[in-house]
Amino acid sequence: MNPTIVTGQQIGLLGGPLFTPFKVLGALAWARQLGGRAVYWLETNDADFAEINHIRFIDAGGRLTRVEWAKKTGGACTGSLPIDASLRPVLESYFDALPATEYTPELRTLALECYQEGRTLGDASEALARALFAGLPLDFFRPDTEAFRAFSKPFLLREADFTPEGEQANCFLRDTRGGPAVRRAIFKKAGRFTTREGEAVDLDRFDLLPNVQTRSVLQDAWFKTHTYIAGPGEVAYLKDMGPQYARHGVAASAVKPRMSAVIVDHRDRRLLERSGQSLGTALALSRSELLKKTLSEAAHFDFDGAEKRLRKIKEEAIASVASLGLETAPVERPLYEGIREVLGRRRATEKKRHGEVLAAAMELSDRLRPGDEPQERVFTLFDFMNRHGGLGLVKVLAEKHSFETALLEFP
């Protein structure tokens, strides 16, 4: 039987951060190497809407920008959320703010066609994923189907029975009594199960959903998974899942860390040249550290060294005042404020003089480490498709990317 390689991620606007397609490409690459099939699990049962309701990107002016779908969900599973008229302006504002390229119209059309009003977010996310990975040997799976819920229930009822008194169960209640499916935490109290609000519930009367402690068990039971392509957080918690697997008699899949890379293009290389920094430095330093280093080098003035020397002079002066038996506070504060003032004036002068160099460093940091986070955890695939080949970029990445790749360079 051909091995099944699975990866998965919660759904997100425009496919979610770049690491999601990296996970999918990893599943495809590993399946190809083992002669198996790749499966993309679109996690539609997750309820953390605040984590997926926004898009961060670099706009046409080179600024790190964010647009957000402001919507009250009442804790509903994100896959069951209906798309209303409020999403289209968010997507339009994103495409309006992007640097206009020959690929922008095609990408805008695709997004608006997938995220049609009246669809659920789960349906839209699946439609988009199928379009992005069209032509690649990839199967798609959603856990919000009736068949999978029926398959899951015996496992989750058994898991619930192991819940210690007063603790939260390793499953959720799927509550559809008020509209879209809501994922409710359940607790064991006095031998019964209740919601967080204290409502007693009969688990036999509801569908149940897995939590982080049971999702992978159900995945491996359903697919007989050979290998799961996992992110760093998943790799960590899957190491401790042995008791859950043993409890349900399920064989655990092998776990392989996902692909990871930084995408660099001609704009980034130009900014590196303007700022006078190396790629390694730009990736290693926070935004504030990079700006401080860039300014010091451009100004040929050692701000850190000057500050240390001035602090030493201040400490020596305070010590001299104290040795005379005098009060130091009236002297210490003016010295401290004076040091801040003289250094601040010099920084302001140098920033004005070297504004273009600092602007290059700021944009560089925003492009490579946006918000001091890894690039792949912030930007979507759309940002890079807009610059490099439109929908054709996915197949290019499938050819260029590997588990050993750390840097993906484009012209």
Task: Describe what you observe in this structure.
This protein is globular. The model has no long low-confidence stretch (mean pLDDT 95). Helix 2 (87-97) packs antiparallel against helix 3, helix 11 runs antiparallel to helix 14 (355-368) and helix 12 runs antiparallel to helix 13. It has helices spanning 19-34, 87-97, 104-114, 121-132, 146-161, 215-223, 232-238, 242-248, 266-275, 279-284, 287-299, 303-323, 329-353, 355-368, 381-387, 393-400; strands at 4-10, 37-43, 54-58, 64-68, 138-141, 168-175, 182-189, 192-195, 200-201, 207-210, 227-230, 254-257, 262-264, 407-409. With 411 residues, it is an alpha/beta fold. It contains 16 helices and 14 strands. The strands form four sheets. Strands 5-2-1-11-12 form a five-stranded parallel sheet. Strands 9-8-7-6-10 form a five-stranded antiparallel sheet. A two-stranded antiparallel ribbon has the order 3-4. The protein has two domains: 4-145 and 214-260, HUPs (Rossmann fold), CATH 3.40.50; 265-373, no CATH class.
Number of strands: 14
Number of spatially distinct domains: 2
- Low-pLDDT runs of 5+ residues are none
Strand-residue fraction?
15-25%
Order of helices and strands: EHEEEHHHEHEEEEEHEHHEEHHHHHHHHE
Strand order of the largest sheet: 5-2-1-11-12
The biggest sheet, with number of strands, parallel, antiparallel or mixed sense and barrel status, is: 5 strands, parallel
